[in-house]
Amino acid sequence: MTDVMRGTPSTRGLRGRVEERLGRGNRSPLGLWFWEIDRVLLLLALLLIGIGLVAVAAASPASAVRYSDGSRSFAAMYYFWRQALWVVASIPVLLVVSMMPTLVARRFALAGAAFMLLMLAIVPFVGEEVNGARRWIGLGVMNFQPSEFLKPFFIVTTAWVLSLRARDPDLPLFPITLALTGLVGGLLMLQPDFGQTVVFVAVWVTMLMIAGTSPRAILALGGVGLGGIVAAYFFYGTARARIDAFLFPDPDKAMTDHYQTDMAHATITGGGFTGTGPGGGMVKFKLPEAHTDYIFSVIGEEFGLIACMIVALLYLALVVRVFVKLLDEEDAFRLLAASGLAVQFGLQALINMAVNTGIAPSKGMTLPFISYGGSSMIALSIGFGMLLAFTRRNPYLKRSPYSVRLNGK
């Protein structure tokens, strides 16, 4: 009876080792990281990654059939197994980056931003052309998309520049970040990639508002942004075609201009509220990019609209959690960097879900941690790792120096 209550020696040994490694009294780097990290945010990320694996498994047969031809044939679960490998590679990246001190994470982001800007500049010349755009550099085992990696590095770099106002209010920070964002936007439009340009600009404007930029300047930027969208409509043929297909659908062009959005709507509503069940979806076989851009629709068909709402709530919970965490943040850099990264995750998810539900024009935007893709998965892991690093809190800092334990120690 005593052994049962106290546990066997092996059980006590295992429990002792866990307490020793992760107990509050542990001052090792791993122990400090475990108690400083926001474990709720980490859990939300792991839940989204797990949901992504299930969703890619559901979409993989449809994509395998679509991309198989006379010269090559993909196994039904080809994309699932590849995604599983990327997840195995990405989670350690996420955890390692989350362990970085703030100064190290900032230097890492600055170096990464410089390198990815260089890669972004050479993409139009050496990149692989897919559907009329050059956005990827082929590396054999995967297609490397510099813009995906640049997003978190750009956000942290911009946060660092804007945070310098606390040291010197006279620094021309707005023009500096405007020039940086303009450079990134110009390089993206050379590919062209209008959707990613919108994400970069939107996150930058959000960070400006958080940094306390005057409302007049924000309104002026809104006017310039509206002018940019109008200019894109007239001078960027792909954007014009997608906007026209969204606003003025032509029944005679149902198989060309708005086929993707029509199939996405048919897929996401094909399973009703509860779905057809795993592997039961049939409309997904008519859906282009079922494993990437339109994976949210596959979730709707096989697991139901209720599952889609749960996924949307997980993204909302992630963003809300970050901003609640930042309410008492006093460091300007950490505040701007963490809020910018959270906005990027939320905005990218919102755009993808809006396209899949038919309330926004078609745009090649992946669903964070859920869509298939090695480049996207690793880049998102780096970004989320930095988000976890910037939201870490020492639980002992707010403890009163006059408090004592009951045992007198």
Shape: globular
- The value of Rg in angstroms is 24 Å
Give the helix tally: 15
Largest sheet: 3 strands, antiparallel
Mean pLDDT: 83
Please write the string of helix (H) and strand (E) elements. HHHHHHEEEHHHHHHHHH
Estimate percent helicity.
Answer: 55-70%
Spatial ordering of strands, largest sheet: 1-2-3
Number of strands: 3
Structural class: mainly alpha
Instruction: List low-pLDDT spans.
Output: 1-5, 398-409
Name the beta content range. Answer: under 5%
Distance between the termini: 33 Å
TL;DR?
By secondary structure, this protein is mainly alpha-helical.
Describe what this molecule looks like in 3D.
This protein has helices at residues 2-6, 9-22, 29-36, 39-67, 78-98, 102-126, 146-163, 173-189, 194-210, 215-235, 237-247, 259-268, 295-325, 332-356, 374-390; strands spanning 128-130, 133-138, 143-144. By secondary structure, it is an all-alpha fold. It has a 3-stranded antiparallel β-sheet with strand order 1-2-3, covered by helices on one side. A hairpin with a 2-residue loop joins strand 1 and strand 2 (133-138). Helix 7 runs parallel beside helix 9. Residues 1-5 and 398-409 have low confidence and may be disordered.
